[in-house]
Write a structure and sequence with these properties.
7 helices, 14 strands, Outer membrane lipoprotein wza fold like, 3-stranded antiparallel β-sheet, 3 domains, alpha+beta, wza like fold
């Protein structure tokens, strides 16, 4: 009789522990309770701010491609006035017959320097740090039109290094590069190999660096369904995400193995419950 009772108690405790742990794993819990009209509202995504160290691809176009060619890296006008494309990465002087054609392009991207400037063909330095992409495009247009171009051009600026860093309790910590200039925290975690089973999903640290060098930190709870509406859902370039380990994972810092500590905890709990059940049985006799 006593053995059967102990067995039932042990199974019950194990099941309860298993259910409790399982509930802490799923993300965006109770999302199906969010009203449809709330889900239909558009999310406002902050435009990335350019800062030193960013690499940009800048393309200038207009109805007069010959006039805009000198403002595009990797393109130049040959001796006949035709647009040519540089096929090699280095070299600023190209030979066309007996003529030397000068090109300002050695790479196909622009690096924002420590002072926040890029060195743009013909114009020289243009300060872009602290601007959004749209503002940077307007700044470049105003720098070349109407001073150098008679027709107002279109300027397209794209990030070449939109990246975030994901560290801590994830499958593959490292630097995540987004090709489409927009990435949310769930996409970043998925690209980092997903959260470890011992990750603390309610206490993820986000560190954001601003163009002026200042930083801000935020704690994110990816269990919370309201994370879908958080202003920190979408990440900014150079954000750092650190996923803490939960209490169970933190115990791995000790030399005692996780399996051993878990066994001790379960045995201790079972012993207490078993003693209580046996006492109750004895009292009922």
């Amino acid at each position: 009789m006593k053995t059967s009772v102990v067995g039932v108690v042990a199974i019950t405790v194990a099941l309860l522990c298993s259910c409790s742990a399982h509930k802490k794993v799923p993300l965006i819990q109770n999302a199906d309770t969010i009203p449809a009209e709330i889900l239909a509202q558009p999310i406002r995504v902050e435009d990335p701010i350019l800062q030193p160290g960013d690499m940009l691809n800048i393309e200038v176009t207009s109805t007069d491609p010959i006039a805009t060619a000198p403002f595009n890296k990797g393109r130049y006008l040959d001796a006949e006035g035709k647009i040519q494309t540089i096929s090699r990465a280095n070299g600023s002087n190209l030979m066309q017959g007996n003529n030397s054609v000068t090109s300002t392009a050695s790479t196909e991207y622009y690096l924002i320097d420590k002072d926040g400037n890029i060195n743009f063909p013909i114009v020289g330095e243009i300060h872009l740090a602290g601007l959004t992409k749209d503002e940077a495009q307007d700044e470049i247009v105003n720098s070349i039109y109407p001073k150098y171009l008679k027709i107002k051009p279109t300027v397209d600026v794209r990030f070449m290094n939109f990246r975030v860093t994901v560290l801590g309790a994830v499958g593959s910590p490292g630097i995540i590069v987004s090709p489409n200039e927009r990435i949310n925290i769930f996409e970043a975690l998925a690209m980092a190999g997903d959260l470890d089973i011992q990750a603390d999903r309610e206490n993820i640290l986000l560190v954001r660096t601003h163009p002026n060098g200042t930083r801000e930190t935020h704690r994110l709870d990816v269990h919370d369904k309201n994370m879908l509406f958080s202003p920190y859902l979408y990440l900014q370039p150079n954000d750092m995400i650190y996923v803490n380990y939960n209490r169970s994972g933190a115990q791995n810092a000790w030399q005692i193995s996780q399996g051993f500590t878990t066994t001790l905890a379960v045995v201790g709990g079972l012993s207490s419950v078993t003693a209580l059940v046996i006492s109750i049985i004895n009292l009922t006799k």
